[in-house]
Design goal:
With 165 residues, the protein is an all-alpha fold. The protein has helices at 7-35, 39-66, 76-91, 98-126, 130-164. Bound molecules: fe (ii) ion (2 copies). Residues 48, 109-110, 113, 143, 146 line the site of one fe (ii) ion.
Length: 165
């Protein structure tokens, strides 16, 4: 019979998943920054790269609270979302639609993170990991804010530029 698994196991697995994803995102953001055409979008990617470094540190603290070593586990979802983003970078390179495309790719990443952190925060609450709840909550707020900032950039300029060309 299969070994019993619990909410602890789910929490641990999901923590490893997002830890892998964040480190992959940290490597990808500089590429997106270089690809972006507008200074505002470059600045937004740079800001989020810095935040991502802090988010990785928070995850290391959560692993510590949980009593496990900080280790990632390949996250196929983020690999897929990021390769689609790379396709946009290639296929829309040098066009007026590039920034709008980059924003949409970045928002797919943010939404993935939001679903993961939302679940982890909930489960940390269930497991009575109070300090972990606060850390996960902080990151969840940063991801939501980033998503909203990207929407604002798309509305303010990128979508219009893409349309006007
Ligand atoms: Fe993140
Ligand atoms: Fe993010």
């Amino acid at each position: 019979m299969a070994k019993e698994k619990t909410l602890e196991d789910l929490f641990h697995d999901t923590l490893k998943d997002i830890y892998y994803a964040e480190r992959k995102i940290l490597k990808t953001l500089p590429k997106m920054q270089r690809a972006a055409q507008s200074d505002e979008l470059k600045a937004a990617f740079e800001k989020h790269r810095e935040e991502t470094e802090g988010q990785i540190e928070r995850l290391q603290q959560v692993f510590e609270i949980f009593g496990k070593p900080a280790r990632g586990k390949t996250c196929d979802a983020i690999e897929g979302i990021i390769s689609e983003g790379e396709e946009i970078m290639d296929e829309f390179k040098g066009t007026a639609a590039l920034d709008a495309g980059l924003i949409s790719s970045a928002q797919a990443v943010e939404h993935y993170e939001i679903t993961r952190y939302g679940t982890l925060r909930r489960w940390a609450q269930e497991l009575g990991l109070k300090d972990a709840v606060a850390l996960l909550e902080q990151t969840l707020e940063e991801e939501s804010k980033t998503d909203a900032d990207l929407t604002a950039l798309a509305d303010a300029s990128a979508n219009q530029r893409a349309k006007a060309a």
